Each structure stands twice: as C-alpha cells, then as structure tokens.
Amino acid sequence: MVINYTFQSCSKLESVTFPEGITTIGNQTFYNCPKLETITFPEGMTHIGDYTFYNCFNLTSVIFPEGMTRIGAYTFYNCPKLESVTLSFNPPVNTFHSSTKINHNK
C-alpha cells in the first residue's frame, strides 16, 4: 500500500511507475502535484483513495488494470488536461469533478 499523503505537493514529480504488488493507493497521495503527467499502475491494483490526483494539472491519460474495484471521491478533481481514463467499472459520479475534457472509456 502507498500510504495517505505520500507524495502530496511534490511540485517536480512528473512520472510514477508503481511496482508489482502494490494494490492500494491511499487518500491524497498525489494531491497537488502540478507537473505529474504519467502514471503506470501494476496488474493487481484494486483501490485508489479519495482526492488522490487532485490538482494534477498536467495529467492527460490514465489506464487502470483489470480488476480495479474502487476509485475514491474527487480522485481526479481539477485535472483540466485529463482527456482519457480507461477502467472496467463505473466510478462515483464526483470522481472527475472539474476535469472537463474527460472521456471515460469502459
């Protein structure tokens, strides 16, 4: 598990690749990481907490592995460049709040 707030406000973080075995990302883990552009999730990832990518202004696309079962509230709040998210279930309605370009692919 990646615990809550781990990378919060890391202003220079641009890319993240999670190793195999990580199944959960806690709340606000990447909150206010404005330069974050890419994220690679491992197979087996099942849970992402609330506000995880809040204010990640440069995030453009996210692909979740099969088996993802929960994405928290406001996970992609205010991610204005986010255009595509691929996942295998319907997330809460407020997941993409203020991410106006989103095209949720299922």
Structural overview:
- This protein has 106 residues and is mainly β.
- It has a single domain (1-106), classed as Alpha-Beta Horseshoe (Leucine-rich repeat, LRR (right-handed beta-alpha superhelix)).
- The chain has no helices and eight strands.
- It has strands spanning 15-17, 24-25, 38-40, 47-48, 61-63, 70-71, 84-86, 103-105.
- It starts with 14 loop residues before the first strand and ends with a strand.
- The protein is 0% helix and 20% strand.
- It is globular.
- The model has no long low-confidence stretch (mean pLDDT 87).
- It has a three-stranded parallel beta sheet, with no helix packed on it. A three-stranded parallel beta sheet has the order 5-7-8, with no helix packed on it. A two-stranded parallel sheet has the order 1-3.
Entry keywords:
single chain; mainly beta; Leucine-rich repeat, LRR (right-handed beta-alpha superhelix); three-stranded parallel β-sheet; 8 strands; globular
